[in-house]
Amino acid sequence: MNKLNVLENRKKSPTKLTRSSKLFKSIIHGIQEKKGEQIVSLDLKNIPEAVADFFIICQASNNNQLRAIADSVEFEVKKNCDEAPYKHEGRQAEQWILVDYVNIVVHIMLPEPRKFYQLEELWSDAPSMEHND
Fold first, then answer.
1. What is the 3-state secondary structure (H, E, C) of the chain?
2. 59: exposed, middle or buried (C-beta count within 10 Å: 0-12, 13-18, 19+)?
3. pLDDT tens digit sequence for 24-47
4. Euclidean distance between CA atoms 80 and 43, whole angstroms
5. Distance (Å, rounded) from C-alpha 102 to C-alpha 85?
């Protein structure tokens, strides 16, 4: 099956996720465990062209922390929800790691790529919430 077919056949869960969902809370906890900064969630459920229900975006101060946050998110979700990511990308480039749980996509970024891509601005019509300690 080619990559395009995989994307076309990818379905969001019929269960509507909320910020109170176990998956959502596990991701936030995983980020906070490794001191991720400027944690923001974007609720994309009412945006027809969105590929997920939520984006969770956070910042790491260096490459080691970037990897540690991604590992922590995957560990917490596996432990609490028994779920592995659908896909993850960016571990080689070490600038921006994306961890995709289909309904929730986690973006872990270094300061420069976050400033450059401005995901919060790109999806500014989505309600956002900060999740800092």
1. CCHHHHHHHCCCCCCCCCCCCHHHHHHHHHHHHCCCEEEEEEECCCCCCCCCCEEEEEECCCHHHHHHHHHHHHHHHHHHHCCCCCEEECCCCCCEEEEECCCEEEEEECHHHHHHHCHHHHCCCCCEEECCC
2. buried
3. 999 999 999 999 999 999 999 999
4. 22
5. 8
- Residue 76 is which amino acid? E
Which pTM value belongs to this model? 0.87
Of the candidates 45, 18, 102, 65, which has an alpha carbon nearest to the alpha carbon of residue 88?
102
Kindly tell me the sign of the dihedral angle through the C-alpha atoms of 73, 79, 80, 85.
Answer: positive
For residue 54, the Cα-to-chain-centroid distance in whole angstroms is: 8
Q: Which residue has the tokens 């956002």?
A: 128
Q: What are phi and psi of 21, to 5 degrees?
A: -65, 150
Which class in CATH covers the domain with range 18-130? alpha beta
Domain spans, the chain: 18-130
